[in-house]
Amino acid sequence: MFQKIRYRLLLSYLVVFASLLGIFALAVRVAFTRSLTQQTTDKLIAIGQGAAANAEFEKDHLTVESDFRPQDLITRHQALQWFDTQGNLIAQQGQTVLTLPLLPSKMVQVQSGKVPIQAVTIPIIGSDNSQLVGYVRVSQSLEEFEET
Fold first, then answer.
1. CA 52, CA 35: separation in Å to the nearest integer?
2. Which of 1, 20, 61, 138 could form a disulfide with 44 if both were Cys (CB 3.0 to 4.6 A apart)?
């Protein structure tokens, strides 16, 4: 009689323990994924701010002086795109380019598909008059992120 109760008690303890372990593993995975996503976004924002600082507005025309070497962008699976205020592409460097349309209201965009890509759009503010002169969009392949 006690043997049957002992097995039921053991089984219930195992079920509770396995459930707690599963919930903990899921929570760790979610926290790790969010942390990795935030790190990627912060890195893209830093690159975008550097690229935005190199863009100048002269004679009603946005000129881009890039300090980024295209080979470095290609190696890191990144790309830079500069747009005017109407969303027209002015210049581009790198190969991992986001093909989605420019959405200035949406800072972070993710493109799914064969090669998943994350992009961050940064406004370019003129140093003379503090007006919006264009946008820079930094994109990076998420293949390494997915592998991790």
1. 25
2. 138
CA distances to 11, 36, 53, 54, 59 from 81, in Å: 59, 24, 14, 13, 21
| Mean pLDDT, the chain, integer | 84
Q: Maximum Cα–Cα distance for the chain, whole Å?
A: 93
Q: What does the DSSP 8-state code read for residue 135?
A: E
Burial call 66-77: b when 16+ CB within 10 Å, e when fewer: bebeeeebeeeb
What is the value of pTM for the model shown? 0.76
Token reading at 134: 């264009």
Nearest residue to 76 via CA among 101, 55, 92, 93: 93
